[in-house]
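Sorry to interrupt, but I need a hand with the structure work. I would like you to pick a protein and set down its sequence and fold. Please put the record directly below this note.
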Amino acid sequence: MANELVHVVDDDEAMRDSVAFLLGTEGFEVRLYEAGTDLLDRLPKPAGGAVLTDIRMPDVDGLELLRRLRAAGHALPVVMMTGHGDVPLAVEAMKLGACDFIEKPFDDEALLQALRSALERAGPAAPADPGLREFVRRIGTLSERERQVLDQLVAGGTSKEIGRVLDISPRTVEIYRAKLMAKTQAANLQELVRWAVLAGIA
C-alpha cells in the first residue's frame, strides 16, 4: 500500500540498513536514499508515504530537505531523526512542517509509532486536536518558574545551562522539570517539545 511506504534518508549506510530491516519486518515498503538530493531527484509527484530523514547530513541537511520538499509542492509527512542535544533543530523542523522527530538512539517501538502516526495523519496535527487543547490547558497550570524552565527546555537548554540563565542550581532545575512534566503529562522531552511547537508556545 502506498500509504505504508517510507522514504528513508540517511548518509550512514549502517543506519539505513538497520532502519530498512526493522521497517521491512513490520510490513512497511521501504525506499532508501543516501542524500536528500537523491530523494528530491527520484520522488514521483504526487508521492505517497512518509519521509524519515536524519537532521544532520552533509550538503543538504534534514531542514533544507524539508524546505525543498515543501517548495516543490510535496506535502508528505516528515519525521526527523535527531542526535542528542538537537532540540533547537527539532523545534525548527517542526515549525517548517515536520510532523514529528525522534532522538537517536531510539527505541524500535518509538520509531514505528512515530511513523504510523505520521502516515495516519499525513501532516501536522490540526490545532483543533483535543489532545493539543488539553496540553494548552495544562500549560496554564504551570507556575511562573515552571514555565520559565519549559521555555528553556524547548530552546534546547541543559539543566546546567538553564540553571545559569535562571540563577538556580541544576538540581533545582531537575525538580522543576519533573513537576512540569507531571503537570503537562508529557511522556518525555520529545513529546513535550512536539506539543509545545504545535501549540505555538515554542
Remarks:
- Confidence is low (pLDDT under 50) at residues 123-128.
- The longest strand covers residues 5-9.
- The CA atoms of residues 147 and 201 lie 10 Å apart.
